[in-house]
Give the backbone structure.
Amino acid sequence: MVSRGVLFVISGTGGAGKGTIVERIRADHKDLWWSVSWATRPARDGEREGEHYSFRGRDEFIALRDADGFLEWADVYGVLKGTPRAPLEAALARGENALLEMDIQGALHLQQSYPNAQIVFVVAPSATVQAERLRARGTDDEEGIQRRLDEAAQEQRAAVAGGFHIVTNDDIDRAVAEVAAIIEGS
């Protein structure tokens, strides 16, 4: 009998560097099954269909949502995002360890169905650094950046209350090593 795989989730505040950490973890841990979430927004520069997200229309997303086809889904600033249920369940049943990247709303919701999931919440070392990273990314206007900064402390409190592993990304190599240690230790 194959033992069930372990689910790892990387979440974090906007501008914390979770995407960079995920890229490095995926490069170093090719045995992790990677889930591609659906999103109802256009791809950003450098994002590729099926790698960063599956970019879908709102109607298609809602149809799968209404058929209970998502493990979790959320409306994040007007964009619907969700993790399709069937591919993840199949990977875990095959004994594969799986990696998901999602926002705090999704991680909190997913934790209800997967209480044994190992959830890592990445934070920037300060609000100043977080704002600099968000501005450098160039995907949010100042109003959007301020909204993300305002919500960051609340998101971190929710992550602590949820028992998530908190990783401060003050040095990318150290932060990646800390996340890798969590994965390798499970």
User: Anything to note?
Assistant: The longest helix spans residues 142-161. The chain has a mean pLDDT of 92.
